[in-house]
Amino acid sequence: MRLKGTAVLPHSLVLAAPKEDKFEKTVRGLKDISLEVAKAKPDTIVLITKQGNVFEDAVGVDYASRLSGSWKLSAEAGSEEISMEKECDMGLLEEINRRAGREELPVFMVNERSAEEFGISQELSPAAFIPLYYIDRVFPDYKIVQLTAGDLSPEVLYQVGMIVREASEANGKDVFVLACADLSTNLASDDPVYAEASADYDGRVQADLADADYLSLMQLRPNIIRDAGAEDHDVMLMILGMFEKIKTESKVLSFEDVEGTGSLCSVSTFMIDDKDFVVPSLLAVYEDRAAREREALRAGEHEILKMIRAASNLWVREQRKLDFPTYASLINDQSLSEELESRQAGVFVTVMKDGKLRGCMGSINPFGDNIGEAFINYTIEALSYDPRFMPVEEEELGRLQFTADILDIPEDVEEASELDPSIYGLIVEQGVHRSVLLPNLPGIRTAEQQIAEGKEKAGISSVTLEAGEPLVMKRFKTEHFE
Fold this sequence. Notes:
Radius of gyration: 25 Å
Strand order of the largest sheet: 6-3-7-2-8-1-10-9
Distance between the termini: 47 Å
Strand content: 15-25%
Mean pLDDT: 92
Number of helices: 17
Largest sheet: 8 strands, mixed
């Protein structure tokens, strides 16, 4: 195999001698990985990061002949910065581009022209400096390819990892892949929920790697990843794709808490000398389990969510609006049908895909003749007109999850002590500025966080507050369906 190995290593360690003494385990792990790379003598090092030009709908690949950058060091390091410039493996870049196109995978080649068009720079990612700093000490002679993981589903990220391995084989040069990924970032959180999620995430990743239980890694729940602050998890999913159908051995070299961040060093190698080195497809097993889980969830959905799903399917496939009176007549629960037809209230529809937000629209005030009509209208808005996202496409429908909220009448509040984000939503207003936050939003656990998020979302700053118009806050409860 031309892919000689992979490694997971951190990118948040400060490059300074005093820090090397402080975080001895991590530095030892980094040096051990560097020796593994030097032993493999790769022609090319593939760097996968989530620090740089991150796209919502694609894996970014820097298509350039050379990449350079600078890293600012702390005063402890004794110098202001280090600079690097690396030659890129154009042959491997071409192979990745060719195979991504053939498989219709969302891989975006960032060249000089597209970088200028998007207003972004082609530079060596900040996440690359830590591993390359140590590797260059023992093995400086290599080219690079730099990829940035996008906000995509586990399956797609896994498939991109698969084509990177295939492209390495086709390119005919030895490759070593580095996943520049911190683990949790909330180990030092004062919030016990985040701290516990961080410890859980870090422990699961280490155990799953040590046991080569890669399916468990792929199936980690989005809420655990989110609460742990593990933003680099997508990078690890791409690495797993490189193991598809090949037996591997993974070894954890070190782990420690680096100023509240889980810092892992591990290496994985392919066991192609084993007579049974070909193993069943992990992707096929994952997709089968995920499909069965989605089917079970849909079977147990509340009637309101079933109506929203029916409205979604009809709108995305045929651009037709679901006729509410006709649908209401088919609902078996007569009391619910009557409530949907007679009740007026503010409603919100939230669309999720693979645990990530895909659209959300609604109103604090009643819309249309009843909440049934309102749910259908805001479903269409969330699918096609949320300005944060591209419209949902037909191939996404099977992967969507929905939540729905019916709002109570808002009431004024004066103090943060009157708020509880787990119970109340929040409306923040100042003049023409306004935002609405539903209860139980991810990442918001205190009233202070809720108010700060509400102000930011509304565009309310110290400047607008000084303009003289009063800040108005209102709280509300919701009847929530998920």
